[in-house]
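If you are new to this repository, start here. Below is one unmodified record pulled from the training split, so you can see the exact layout before writing a loader.
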Amino acid sequence: MELSLLQQIILGIIQGITEWLPISSSAFISLAASNWFNLTSVDALIKTALFFHLGTFFAALIYFWSEVKNLFKTLVHYKSSTAESKKIFNFIFLSTLISGLVGIIILQILTLFSNSMELTGKTITFAIAILLLITGIIQLKPKKKGLRKEKNLNYKDSILLGFAQGFATLPGLSRSGITISSLLLRKFDDTSSLRLSFIMSLPIIILGNILLNVTETTFTLTSLIGLLAAFVFGYLTIHALMKLSKKINFGWFVIVFAILMGISLLF
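And here is the target side for that same chain:
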């Protein structure tokens, strides 16, 4: 099903605003696409959400350009790089590798599941409500600020965050929410947790689109406008929302939203 210009813009705006909130941008895109635009295939929903992540990918790429540039320098001059630069590079590389493997396995399971039964908008809404509830509970757990920073990264962190990001393939589990929570549980401070979470999203988004969307994606004028909407709204909100996320625990917000979503199924 090809989305219209208005539908592309709506999904792009949703992606741009919700990507930086720990409430799963993929969930909101899946809800809008399934309930408003009658897109009910799990495989199509995941690929649609992944496509719109390209818009916020470029927003994050520009916002964190200095950090990304340092990663490229470390790749080219690994031996002469500082110990901290090597640790960050190793963390991104290993966590991305694990995330990709876990994500592919989950995607295959979801595709098999969707082919064995007819999914409706309400079925998808119920599944996403449960997953959002899990995300909210995860968000409530970290309560104390940690003392660890990027220089303290180790292989255990890479493995844990790789699995965490991989499980975020499930529509409804917030990638930023689960990775930030995992970093906080590993005793990283707020600033380091936010920075690492957003930077580690960059390679997995590109790889995901290459592996899953490259043969099916057609860049039309309408789809590019949708990506532009995601980019503009993502870039405009990233700075403010990163500051806000340091002061407000979104866990209760997500839990209330998930409960209301579940109640809506009764009507």
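Two things worth knowing about this chain: The chain has a mean pLDDT of 81. Residues 83-115 form the longest helix (33 residues).
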